[in-house]
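Issue 218. Parser rejects a valid record. Input:
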Amino acid sequence: EVENLADYGLKNPRATVKVTFKDDSVYEYNLGDVSAGDGSGCYMSGKGSNNVYVVSIDDAIFNSVEDFVD
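Output the parser choked on:
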């Protein structure tokens, strides 16, 4: 758990990902700054949580919604 989400770019996240599971439960994740190190990860936290994780993502997730529609 961290004290300041802004240190990780999570106070004003770059993106929010909403996941709906088979049981219809919904969870939202915030994606923040590129993580320290080799730059291949991104800081992530669950919405409303101060726990921060480093995840590997495809940078295309930050593209506009039009990039995902035919």
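Fixed in the parser; the record now loads. The beta strands are 15-20, 26-34, 41-46, 53-56.
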